[in-house]
Design brief:
heterodimer, A: alpha/beta, Aspartate Aminotransferase, domain 1, 2 domains, 7-stranded mixed β-sheet, 14 strands, 45% helix, disordered N terminus, B: 3-stranded antiparallel β-sheet, globular
């Protein structure tokens, strides 16, 4: 009996190994297409046509003068045409035109500046960088400074020490050289130590892939997971459009799951299950679940219990958990705390073999807000070595991420400690920024909730408010007449009346028939009262104009 | 019962399709199987369920056996240990299924993609380095890693931009010259929020204007900043453009062979078809338009729509500089065949001879006039990683588009906007590269001295290297006219081919690994760049420090001549 059972098991192993490399996809496709003749009209396949007036309706048929050229709008990659990225969409283009015109035509407008609340770009709105981080970066940018005695008069002593320490970790102290494609090993060590300190569970520097911001990491994972429109990624709705755009570019299917606005943008496991089953019935293999925590654009912070359910769900369904944790430092309410998904999974006793987890972190958010640096990393756990090699290979085609972004990512994960020369100023700067963000979030949220027909969940975290606006029928009709989505119509009017740039909810997707916009909490605190006034006045006059 | 289930699961796994409406039809006991797997259609998942069920029942059987047979004599304990090994094996089978699943389901294009510059040789070299061996990395054009010092002025400007509070410090003049301070203020004024704010997704408008002015000075023709996009290194730009052009495997891109593997890797990642055209080694890696025609005709006969052509000028890995006449032919060819020309011109500062100075594709195109100047679509790429700058770690680059319709430009802009913006400090490096200090500026002399020093040394190193290779037995090497690489042909004797075969290695990989083990010189085998069948090469950079160069070439020669002596059995060589 023993021989028989062992023999059978061995056979099984061999057969699994010997499986030809890619039969299932073809078979899979064929079989699934029998099940469902046309998957492309599925509601789960995201078809992002947000600003139909601007780009889609007049898209086909390129200029006749260019039709003899090899590359025209008709002949480019249709996936490129299909993807949309509203954070920098039509409204922003209008804003840029207004800004240019304001320089020469100041009197033509009821406002004197454009306030960009469309994008989480804190330093463009006056937030100051953390001094210690920039000192270290300056020293690493021009290492000759380290040999000058005058440097000690201009730089803090621990920034000099840290710069030396970092340079010692870079082969040849060459900050101008390509690094290892995963990032400089010593910097990854610092990041792993930072993760360990955060979570209380070990982190392996070989699991860290440093990237030019978090977005390229998300792209890399999408590229890896998506083979065709039969591969689905579960994404929250509303979602940060990086996900929809990246899935569209790689030709996959966005499988939506709706966050529950009524319960503070809660994430219900029953909804996940329902959408997963629905996708399966359409012949889509769901490969991964994307969770944004704290939420963008919705600002909620998940409870640990909810996170445990999500981890269990992924484990049970064999899904890769893509954890967008770029706002981990941005939590504004005392009753909520950020927990990394890795910590939650490990504290449940799940290890490498139980769940595939990718955690994304960025230097663009938090209290540091260093968007222009393009730094970030992903921590990749629970993948087999052959899959890991593929990730490394894709990373290596782009050689490496930029070194100052890498240095900054390591600094963010290992900031000054008590007793360091810069510690007090660092803490003062950090607390100053975070408490001010909390105040701004609160002020804006309260102001929005006072507006007629507007309800706004509190921003527990991240950098955004995502109020729901009940638009009068007349406004909806006017929007239709203008061939634009009602929320985009509202946002355009807001921009033209006040100079405030926000992103219509349709850019993030929303429950059909509801309308929202996303507004960052990032304008400097002294500007907030004026923003509130302008917004309130605009809303009143908008409602007066369109009230049914 | 146990056997029945296991047999069922094995049979279903044996069916070479992972998805079946009813995997149980292939088993001998379909009803039992269906009852167990509860509607699973994925064969792996079904097997998974079946094994789990089997393990549960085996465990139960063992417990019953334990209970019933209280006396644990030899026979019973053997039986129990048999149960246990059965568990182990089943566990392994489960693990195997799961791992197989994860890898199998990956995007095939990702699995197909190859990138040799950081491949087997590089990994082995890194291992050896960890073991304490001195490695000379000549596998990547990464000058600073081999000791080239950064230019002082740009580093001063960027350091000031990193720490703008220094600009307010009365003592800043003790550390920085006035023109660096002025330049830092200038670049900060072009940003909206310094280095820490996202810029326009196409790059800072002010820097793009400086790039346009540079192009105009270089070519004598106007350049439009709106058609210039700054990128995180030239590679990102190439990926953006190819992503826009390639719709599927029916779209072909003409790529020189040997080529820089960025192109093959990206085309494969995007699921397009690489259409090779061979450079002629005996004509100093010349580009013969007849070869191009043949390549296009052949691809078309296979149903591939050839859409774009890549040229790398100066060449990587081949180091040749294209002549103006040759570029004209290429542009005419692109016009006639309706191809977009992607001009990889990242080595335009790296020229080591005087007969053929760099001339941009854009200039040649504009010189040709109508109908070509309006009819050929061109995208040219540049970077801060090469030249005498060598600022690889900054990830800065740009591309300029010519004759690309505005709506397509908009689409490219949209895709760029998903990545938000290129990193801002590299944008400033790019600004500095295209507008370096001028005569009369405080920093001019130092800047000129540093940049001239690097270029002249590279020119000398190019010569030392090609001469060195040509002095070796069975090695022939074209002169490195430009770029940063030598690409010698290694004529491997049959004995070496045989030995490589036995070691299970491609012959040039075999040679390069031996070279690495013997000398610590880390090169890239020619097969990573593509080469004619039966001909073998390796690529080295010319970047090791000049003073180390003679020693490196000596140790190469010693290795090579010993290698040839070992394997040369007098029966001729791989073909020249």
């Amino acid at each position: 009996m023993r021989r028989f059972v062992i023999g059978q098991a061995k056979n099984l192993i061999d057969q699994t190994r010997r499986r030809p490399p890619q039969p299932h996809h073809h078979n899979n496709l064929r079989l699934l297409s029998l099940l469902r003749p046309s998957a492309s009209d599925s509601t789960a396949v995201y078809s992002p046509r947000l600003f139909s007036s601007s780009s889609s309706s007049d898209m086909p048929g390129s200029d006749s003068s260019t039709s003899s050229l090899p590359v025209t709008l008709d002949s480019i990659n249709p996936k490129v045409l299909k993807c949309e990225y509203a954070v920098r969409g039509e409204i922003v283009s209008i804003a840029q035109r207004l800004q240019d015109d304001l320089k020469t035509n100041k009197d033509a407008y009821p406002f004197d500046e454009i306030i960009y609340c469309n994008i989480g770009n804190p330093q463009s709105l006056g937030q100051q960088p953390i001094t210690f981080f920039r000192e270290v970066l300056a020293l690493c940018s021009h290492t000759a400074l380290l040999d000058e005695s005058a440097t000690h008069g201009l730089f803090s002593s621990d920034s000099i020490d840290r710069a030396w320490k970092i340079l010692d970790q870079i082969p040849g102290k060459a900050t101008g050289a390509y690094s290892h494609s995963q990032g400089i090993k010593g910097l990854r060590d610092a990041i792993a130590a930072g993760i360990e300190a955060r979570d209380g569970f070990p982190a392996d520097p070989n699991d860290i892939f440093m990237t030019d911001g978090a977005s390229p990491g998300v792209h890399m994972m999408m590229q890896l997971l998506i083979s065709s429109e039969k591969d689905g990624i579960l994404c929250p709705i509303p979602q940060y459009p990086l996900y929809s755009a990246s899935i569209a570019l790689h030709g996959g299917s966005l499988v939506p799951y709706y966050l529950d606005e009524a319960s503070g943008w809660g994430l219900e496991i029953s909804e996940l299950k329902k959408q997963l089953e629905d996708a399966k019935s359409k012949g889509i293999t769901v490969r991964a679940l994307a969770v944004i925590n704290p939420g963008n654009p919705t600002g909620q912070v998940l409870s640990e219990e909810n996170q445990r359910d999500i981890v269990d769900f992924c484990k049970k369904e064999g899904l890769v958990l893509l954890a967008d944790e770029v706002y981990q430092e941005n939590v504004y309410v005392p009753d909520k705390k950020f927990h990394s998904f890795k910590k939650v999974a490990r504290s449940m006793g799940y290890g490498e073999k139980d769940i595939s987890l990718v955690s994304f972190q960025s230097i663009s958010k938090g209290y540091y807000g260093e968007c222009g640096k393009r730094g970030g990393y992903m921590e990749v756990t629970g993948f087999t070595s052959d899959v890991r090699e593929q990730i490394y290979k894709v990373a290596s085609v782009n050689l490496c991420s930029n070194i100052s972004g890498q240095i900054l990512a390591s600094l963010v994960m290992s900031p000054p400690k008590p007793g360091d020369d810069s510690y007090d100023s660092y803490i003062a700067e950090k607390e100053g920024i975070l408490s001010s963000l909390a105040t701004r979030a609160k002020t804006l949220e309260e102001a929005l909730n006072k507006l007629e027909g507007v309800t706004c969940n509190r921003a527990e975290g991240a950098m955004y408010l995502f109020p729901c606006i009940t638009l009068p029928q007349k406004a909806i009709a006017a929007a239709e007449a203008a061939k634009t989505a009602p929320d985009a119509f509202y946002c355009k009017r807001l921009l033209n009346a006040t100079g405030i740039v926000v992103v219509p909810g349709s850019g993030f997707r929303q429950v059909p028939g509801t309308w929202h916009f996303r507004c960052t909490i990032l304008p400097q605190e002294d500007k907030i009262p004026a923003i509130v006034n302008r917004l309130t006045e605009f809303h009143k006059s908008f409602m007066n104009e369109f009230r049914d | 019962m146990i056997f029945v289930l296991l047999a069922a699961s094995c049979r279903s796994a044996a069916a070479f399709s992972l998805f079946l409406d009813d995997p149980c039809t292939v088993t001998d006991f379909p009803a039992l199987c269906r009852g167990t797997i509860k509607g699973q259609r994925n064969v792996n998942a079904a097997t998974d369920v079946a094994i789990a069920e089997l393990m549960k029942r085996t465990r139960q059987a063992r417990d019953i056996a334990k209970k019933e047979l209280k006396v644990l004599d030899g026979g019973v304990s053997t039986c129990l240990s048999n149960f246990n090994s059965a568990f182990d094996n089943l566990d392994k089978a489960l693990k195997n299924i799961k791992e197989g699943d994860q890898y199998d389901l990956l995007n095939e294009n990702v699995k197909k993609c190859q990138y040799a510059v950081r491949g087997e040789l590089y990994l082995r070299a890194s291992e050896l380095q960890k073991e304490g061996k001195k490695i000379i990395f000549t596998n990547v054009g990464n000058p600073h890693a081999l000791g080239q010092k950064p230019l002082t002025f740009p580093r001063q400007v960027v350091a000031l931009c990193q720490a703008p509070f220094l600009l307010d410090d009365p003592n800043v003049g003790m550390l920085f010259p006035a023109d660096a301070i002025a330049r830092a203020k200038h670049y900060l004024s072009l940003t909206s929020g310094g280095l820490g704010a996202y810029s326009d997704s196409r790059g800072l408008p002010g820097v793009r204007k400086e790039v346009a002015e540079f192009i105009q000075r270089r070519d004598g023709y106007p350049s439009d900043p709106e058609l210039i996009f700054l990128t995180d290194g030239a590679s990102k730009g190439v990926m953006q453009i190819l992503n826009c052009v390639i719709r599927g495997e029916g779209d072909g891109i003409l790529v020189p062979v040997p080529q820089y593997p960025l192109y093959s890797a990206t085309i494969s990642l995007l699921g397009g078809s690489l259409v090779p055209y061979y450079l002629d080694e005996s004509e100093n890696w010349g580009l013969d338009v007849n070869n191009l025609r043949q390549s296009v005709a052949q691809a078309r006969s296979q149903g591939i729509s050839v859409r774009a052509m890549v040229i790398i000028n100066p060449g990587n890995p081949t180091g040749q500089c294209l002549s103006e006449a040759n570029l004209k032919e290429i542009l005419k060819f692109c016009y006639n065949e309706k191809l977009v020309l992607l001009g990889d011109e990242v080595y335009q500062q790296n020229i080591y001879q005087d007969e053929r100075p760099f001339i941009s594709s854009k200039k040649v195109l504009m010189d040709m006039g109508s109908p070509f100047s309006k009819g050929v679509q061109l995208v040219s790429f540049h970077t801060v990683s090469k030249g005498y700058w060598g600022e690889c770690g900054q990830r800065g680059g740009y591309f300029e588009m010519t004759n690309i319709p505005p709506r397509v430009v908009e689409e490219i802009y949209k895709v760029a906007s998903i990545a938000l913006s290129p990193n801002v400090s590299a944008q400033i490096f790019m600004g500095l590269m295209v507008s370096p200090p001028k005569p009369g500026d405080i920093s001019y002399d130092q800047f000129a001295r540093e940049s001239k020093g690097i270029l002249e040394s590279l020119r000398r190193r190019a010569k030392i290297m090609t001469d060195g290779f040509n002095s070796c037995k069975n090695v022939v090497c074209n002169f490195t006219e430009g770029a940063m690489y030598s690409f010698p042909q290694i004529r491997l004797p049959p004995g070496a081919l045989q030995a490589a075969k036995q070691a299970g290695k491609v012959p040039d990989v075999f040679y390069c690994l031996k070279l690495l083990e013997a000398t610590g010189i880390s090169t890239v085998p020619g097969s990573g760049f593509g080469q004619k069948e039966g001909v073998f090469h390796l690529r080295t950079t010319i970047l090791p420090a000049e003073e180390e160069m003679p020693e490196i070439m000596d140790s190469f020669k010693k290795f090579n001549d010993e290698f040839m002596a070992q394997y040369d059995n007098g029966f001729g060589y791989s073909r020249m």
